[in-house]
């Protein structure tokens, strides 16, 4: 498995990282035995970075808080006995506890508490890369970053980073703490962060971790005009991080785009998912692409895309196909 440095730091990651958002059940029901086999297969294939978040598992309803940390617990159990072979990334700083009244929780005490809970649920004494999941604009950046620095000094977080931080806040965070990564959504249907933040990341020596490289399932080619989502599946709104890609007025156009991309993939001897993942890995400043997997075959397919390269002509063909996409917006998620 190819590896890359995360930005200008000495932290190295496999270019394909394993994402555990699905373990929280927000993509529909999860079978833990299958998930565990997928984790073990990923390690065997050379995947070294495993991503999670405190919020993965939070659900709607009166008892929504009970799910916080679910993905971390499943991942932690799956990694038992193999912890020393891999690196764990997790995220906090958002509302995941019953006493939280707002979505963002960047206060010093809240960040510290999140890490303690994550360490317990993951079954580890340290996190290799800890990220603030979303910026809290109501809290001074210096306060949030002071918590991060103290976690690093205490040995509970080896490296520090952020997620979903636009250029201005990324620059501010980096002025207060040694930020090595910014984890953002990046795929063929969503290049907002590339335009908004990638140049800043390069200037600051910060690596980009790309989540959602398969457009949350759209770029697997499994969606049809009849696709319905389980009631627990966050995609049932058909709007992905502000982009109404699957709403009735845009679905047909985007399914046509997917069909054309599949033809390009097949001409290159790839699956559609492999083409999409390889494209994301070619993005400027991208250190790794995070792929969710419920079963071993999904991570096997993803890993096979790690060494794929495109010619300039192939990239132009992909860009031409994407001109037919619908429902895209310019503003990055807030």
The count of DSSP E runs of length 2 or more, i.e. the number of strands, is 10
| Straight-line distance between termini | 34 Å
Strand content: 15-25%
Q: How many domain regions?
A: 1
Helical fraction = 25-40%
Structural class: alpha/beta
**Number of H/I helices:** 11
For this structure, the CATH topology is: TIM Barrel
Can you write the helix and strand succession as a string?
A: EEEHEHEHEHEHEHHEHHEHH
Shape: globular
Average pLDDT level: 95
Task: Report low-confidence residues grouped into runs of 5 or more.
Answer: none
Q: Sheet with the most strands?
A: 8 strands, parallel, barrel
Rg computed from alpha carbons, rounded to a whole number of angstroms: 19 Å
CATH class: Alpha Beta
CATH superfamily placement: NADP-dependent oxidoreductase domain
Strands of the widest sheet, in order across it, are 3-4-5-6-7-8-9-10
CATH architecture: Alpha-Beta Barrel
């Amino acid at each position: 498995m190819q590896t890359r440095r995360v930005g200008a730091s000495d932290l190295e990651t496999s270019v394909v990282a394993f994402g555990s958002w699905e373990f929280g059940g927000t993509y529909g029901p999860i079978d833990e035995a299958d998930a565990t086999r997928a984790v073990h297969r990923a390690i065997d294939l050379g995947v070294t970075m495993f991503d999670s978040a405190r919020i993965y598992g939070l659900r709607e309803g009166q008892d929504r808080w009970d799910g916080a940390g679910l993905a971390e617990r499943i991942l932690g159990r799956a990694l038992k006995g193999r912890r020393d072979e891999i690196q764990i990334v997790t995220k906090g700083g958002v509302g995941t506890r019953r006493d939280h009244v707002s979505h963002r929780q960047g206060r010093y005490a809240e960040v510290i508490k999140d890490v303690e809970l994550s360490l317990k649920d993951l079954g580890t004494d340290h996190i290799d890369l800890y990220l603030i999941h979303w910026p809290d604009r109501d809290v001074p950046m210096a306060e949030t970053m002071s918590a991060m620095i103290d976690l690093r000094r205490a040995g509970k977080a080896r490296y520090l980073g952020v997620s979903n931080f636009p250029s201005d806040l990324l620059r501010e965070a980096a002025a207060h703490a040694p930020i090595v990564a910014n984890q953002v959504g990046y795929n063929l249907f969503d290049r907002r962060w590339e335009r908004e933040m990638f140049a800043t990341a390069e200037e600051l020596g910060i690596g980009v971790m790309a989540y959602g490289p398969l457009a949350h399932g759209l770029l697997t080619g499994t969606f049809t005009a009849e696709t319905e989502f389980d009631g627990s599946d966050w995609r049932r709104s058909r709007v992905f991080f502000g982009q109404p890609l699957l709403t009735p007025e845009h679905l047909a156009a985007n399914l046509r785009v997917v069909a054309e991309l599949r033809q390009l993939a097949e001409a290159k001897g790839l699956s559609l998912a492999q083409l999409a993942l390889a494209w994301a890995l070619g993005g400027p400043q991208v250190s790794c692409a995070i792929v969710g997997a419920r079963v071993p075959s999904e991570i096997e397919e993803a890993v096979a895309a790690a060494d794929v390269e495109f010619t300039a002509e192939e990239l132009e063909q992909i860009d031409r196909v994407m001109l037919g996409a619908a429902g895209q917006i310019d503003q990055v998620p807030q």
